[in-house]
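Lecture notes, part 5. Sequence design as translation. It can be helpful to think of inverse folding as translation between two languages: the language of shapes and the language of residues. The source text, in structure tokens, appears below.
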């Protein structure tokens, strides 16, 4: 029996590929990490286990420091393992169709993994990489056994086919998600730029029918039609554009980025007689693009200032709770309604609450912040604070 049917004959000095930043960006755009179990992926692992006659099978995603299981068909009661301990980390750097270890105990370096060296640990492993349309390896479909064994060419082809099915599914999900967001943006855009001017047009035409001085009224109506045409043309152009955010991540404390944002916006808050409080309970460093995160936090703080009355307080707070790193931007007296909170992340959303200092609000700041946070594998939402008219924006990153 061969010790390994792969290009790698031992554990390499590093399991991090040179293009790992770009690879992680490709992984994050699918928004799959830390999502609940789903029937499709569980069917894939059941099929892999049955067809290759292996007791355990996984759909794995290789994150920055961990390998997370979208589907776990095994007795292993964990959702992820350290990246350095996972054989899937070798699969994504191997450069072959299927990585196979017929007996892990015969491969130099693999016994350093506790999942290999433990009694009843991994003796046999076979994994096919999940290769995206732009040629990044983001994870695997793999099977394992506690006994060494060989693998047939037909079984390798099965793993490759299952991996291709997984990639096709997540690509379709990504397209569907983009289409849904485009629909939501189009709906709010139509309401903002077409429906409202149409109402004004109806009023003007009604006045024209009653007024003896119809010429001026008709001239106004004609101007409104021109505005409608311009708005519609702009919307059509925007619908054909798909902005691609590009990350340049590094290890950095978000608290320091937030501190600079608080200092920047303190004069603006003071001008509205608002108090801007900044508190830090965690200085953990995260792998993020500092410029994009700064932009997202600026948009959240700026929006809070705009929709908070004079004499009120705004908080920018950073802390950790139950393995979640959170950034909260809160207002003790926001004019945003509960209905507003449901749509503030849609482009051009028409909000019930109005800015409290006649500031301009384009409707683009919060959708942009949402895109940035989700690109970083984070979550963002708006909710009441539980104190009278208080509202807050919450950004959350999993850190465990």
């Amino acid at each position: 029996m061969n010790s390994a049917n792969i290009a790698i004959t031992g554990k390499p000095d590093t399991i991090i590929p040179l293009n790992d930043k770009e690879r992680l960006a490709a992984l994050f755009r699918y928004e799959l990490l830390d999502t609940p179990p789903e029937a499709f992926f569980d069917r894939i692992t059941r099929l892999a286990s049955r067809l290759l006659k292996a007791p355990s099978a996984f759909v794995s995603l290789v994150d920055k420091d961990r390998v997370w299981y979208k589907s776990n068909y095994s007795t292993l009661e964990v959702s992820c393992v350290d990246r350095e301990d996972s054989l899937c980390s070798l699969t994504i750097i191997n450069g072959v169709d299927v990585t196979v270890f017929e007996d892990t105990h015969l491969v130099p370096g693999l016994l350093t993994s506790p999942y290999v060296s433990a009694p009843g640990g991994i003796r046999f492993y076979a994994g096919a990489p999940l290769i995206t349309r732009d040629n990044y390896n983001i994870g695997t479909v793999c099977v394992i056994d506690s006994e060494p064994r060989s693998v047939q060419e037909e079984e390798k082809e099965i793993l490759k086919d299952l991996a291709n099915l997984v990639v096709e599914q997540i690509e379709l999900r990504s397209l569907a998600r983009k289409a849904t967001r485009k629909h939501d943006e189009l709906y709010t855009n139509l309401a903002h730029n077409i429906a409202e001017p149409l109402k004004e047009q109806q009023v003007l035409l009604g006045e024209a029918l009653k007024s003896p001085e119809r010429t001026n009224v008709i001239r106004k109506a004609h101007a409104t039609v021109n505005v409608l045409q311009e708005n519609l043309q702009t919307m059509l152009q925007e619908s054909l554009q798909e902005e691609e955010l590009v990350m340049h991540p590094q290890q950095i404390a978000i608290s320091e980025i937030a501190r600079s944002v608080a200092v920047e916006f303190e004069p603006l808050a003071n001008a509205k007689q608002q108090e801007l409080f900044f508190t830090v309970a965690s200085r953990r460093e995260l792998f993020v693009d500092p410029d994009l995160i700064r932009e997202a936090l600026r948009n959240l703080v700026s929006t809070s200032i705009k929709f908070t009355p004079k004499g009120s307080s705004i908080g920018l707070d950073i802390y950790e709770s139950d393995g979640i790193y959170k950034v909260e931007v809160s207002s003790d007296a926001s004019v945003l309604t509960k209905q507003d909170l449901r749509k503030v992340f849609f482009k051009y959303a028409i909000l019930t609450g109005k800015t409290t200092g006649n500031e301009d609000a384009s409707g683009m700041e919060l959708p942009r912040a949402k895109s940035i946070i989700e690109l970083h594998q984070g979550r963002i939402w708006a909710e009441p604070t539980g104190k009278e008219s208080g509202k807050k924006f919450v950004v959350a990153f999993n850190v465990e």
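The translated text above is only one of many valid answers, since several sequences can fold into similar shapes. The mean pLDDT is 86.
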